[in-house]
Amino acid sequence: MQKLCIQIITTLIKSKYLLLLALLTIALILGTGIGSVYISPIKIFSILLHKVFNISLIDSVKNTDVAIIYHIRLPRVLIAALIGGSLAMSGAAIQSLLRNPLASPYTLGVSSGASLGVAIAISFHLTSPFLSNMFLPVVGFLSSLVTVILILYLARKIDRNYSTNTIILVGIVSSLFINGLLTLVIALSGDELKNIIFWQMGSLSLRGYDHLLGILPFVIIGSLGLLVLHKELDALAFGEESAKNIGVNTQKVKILVILFSATLTGSAIAISGIIGFVGLVSPHIVKRIYGQKHLTLLPISFLFGGIFLILTDLIARTIVSPSELPVGSITALIGAPFFAFIFFYKRGK
Fold first, then answer.
1. How far is CA 50 from its chain centroid?
2. Which of 19, 36, 292, 300 is most deeply packed, by most CB within 10 A?
3. Is the pTM of this model over 0.85?
4. Is residue 93 helix, strand or coil?
5. Which domains are present in the chain?
6. HSE-up of residue 88 (Cα within 13 Å, Cβ side)
7. Strand, coil or helix: what is 220?
8. 243-288, pLDDT tens digit by residue?
9. Where does residue 296 rank: exposed (0-12), middle (13-18), buried (19+ CB within 10 A)?
10. Alpha-carbon distance 111 to 268, whole Å?
11. Which positions ≥6 away from 344 have C-beta within 8 Å?
């Protein structure tokens, strides 16, 4: 693990990776500064220094500025970075595992499982005094995890080797079945219909530090788990037989990659609802610029996905200000044409 961390730090020191970190910093400043009330970068840094190091605020900073930055925009932007990064990183891993450029974290039915669990919880007014605001996120994550375990079980019943085509087929069929159940729940939900549909559209509004702390452990576990498997994913890129010939346990790797990807995707969906195309668009752009090596591809996809979702969320909450659009609609408007481009480009080749 120590050697892996040194490799990652060495990789990031290179100039083009520092450029990406600079873009992430700019995105964070834009995300926290722009809104119904504009707050300058100088004020933002003053507020952060005050909160972290107890340094006195500059004279131009008002109490309302502190409240807006620290309690409303900052947690939302940080959550956007983690969710965007999680979706992008899991998307890169799933595309490599399935060797399918059109695959995404949702290919395996994770989003469908999370949506069904949350829809049931909302419809039946299920709550927990211990989890409070984190109840729906936990329900969404557990539902997605159960879905993935079920898909792995069915795939093994069909093909003990977990072939790529079997995993994709079982994932698609399971998604269709779960979506049928979800439609039934929505039809019977009555007064809760609006809440369920709004959650499905994807949004980061009203997200605070409790949500940030809730998703952080899952992000750490899922991302580190995938990074540890970077050599195995490199081997699988040349085909299963080639990977087996150099001693890779392909069955074990497939299960671990799917579980770690589900951890990232399930926790992200549980916090934000369904936000599509981040896990599809980001890995493709990163591969074109930074290459296919997973020690580079995975962390850079995480950074790029975070930048992408911060900026799309900024558009969603400012384009029709003071109203707010679901961020999922903005990512779909950007991602759908990109998806079509990939499809026709690959078909043309």
1. 31
2. 300
3. yes
4. helix
5. 2-32+74-344 (1.10.3470.10)
6. 31
7. helix
8. 888 888 988 999 999 999 988 998 898 889 889 889 988 998 899 8
9. buried
10. 10
11. none
